[in-house]
């Protein structure tokens, strides 16, 4: 393969990275804690945690997992937390104990949570009390043996911790009643772990760091196996891509995307490696609070999605504070719109660097270089140690300019799906190309452009929604005869979920169906548009509903 994209690399960017510099993510973390010991590592709600403090607290948590819970290397621990200081403490503690981490979206419904716990085999979970009522509903049907709970203010200084936890606990909208016998508090776990010796666990590239769940074409979420080797490779690749623009121990990063999302997760390791301070935004939808946090920080890097950047551009006060120190703006998860890119450059003085990847690629595989002047309209170039090809249906490579399925090879690509050998086989070609499901082409310089999506996946503000899962939930309603779920364009989130429904019960309303979905699906998966049809939905000769044709039928919206 002729890697034509290498000619477009900025000076100093290597064609290949050294994946053997670090044995594991644990190795990356422990070296950074020693190197940047006195520097701030994370900040949340105006409370900072230095690398030295993070080292000690994560050590205590790892010791608790080993000595109090007797968890062995490779056992699965689930994390159900938003962006709080507790997250890196628990994450790095679990990895130091040699466990495999299962990230869970805190907003998941009981149905979604139960599947992920059962499929992963997680025996321990750390959950914010705000979401413990959801966990309570499924514990009896899960392999979880130990629950560790935490409150928002647990790692704050004592005065702020007491006040924060008191206020949150007495806001009924924030914390619903729950009862989990035998649950332990995180602070109690840390104190217990502090009294014991941490046993060092040898980890290498083949050990599994994460079971990171992504939607499945069958409607069932699949656990992508991300090894320490995958993750080390991707952090090395991204580090090489940004190294010439960022300085060790001198950067302040805004992290508004949830760390349970693979994009924010991997970038957080990159920032640990370079000794940056990461400011965790717990609720970026609270734009007033978000802007307040930004005003307190001389931030140099921000990661996000198109939706977030558009919201910031329209938020009062943002334009006055963004242009002074910002060096790099990174975007992933969904396409960056031209108007947002141009307005961002005008307001901040820096372009949005758009990249591309999937959960299965840890996630970054393609990115625009940091030296671009303006929006390119592409997802960029293959990053170091990454190959990209456009394949036809038979798996044959197509010439430049031809539209085919974007396919990827590299050390960051998953080795497969957890307990799903058939799905793993279908995802790869015989010669090792991972099929992304996205269609596109590569131009004569090596830049890749997405043209269409082969899969029926819907992309809502960077989060994947698979139609089969939503259709399965809608069909549970006794008033539904048929349904097709498709994407509808949306100025704010790029796409939203649209359901085309044939009623069994003529009295069924959109409001009733929405309420049904809200009980079974997390918010971004719930249809925002529901259209009813009176005639049967179009089907293939084997009876499969043809989603795209279903949208062309005449019907009524509610």
Note down, in words, how this protein is organized.
With 558 residues, the chain is an alpha/beta fold. It folds into three domains: 1-8 and 228-455, ANL, N-terminal domain (Rossmann fold, 3-Layer(aba) Sandwich); 25-203, 3-Layer(aba) Sandwich (Rossmann fold); 458-557, GMP Synthetase, Chain A, domain 3 (2-Layer Sandwich), CATH 3.30.300.30. The chain is 29% helix and 23% strand. The strands form five sheets. The chain has a nine-stranded mixed beta sheet, with helices on both faces. A seven-stranded mixed beta sheet has the order 7-6-5-3-4-8-9, sandwiched between helices. A four-stranded antiparallel beta sheet has the order 17-18-19-20, with no helix packed on it. The model has no long low-confidence stretch (mean pLDDT 93).
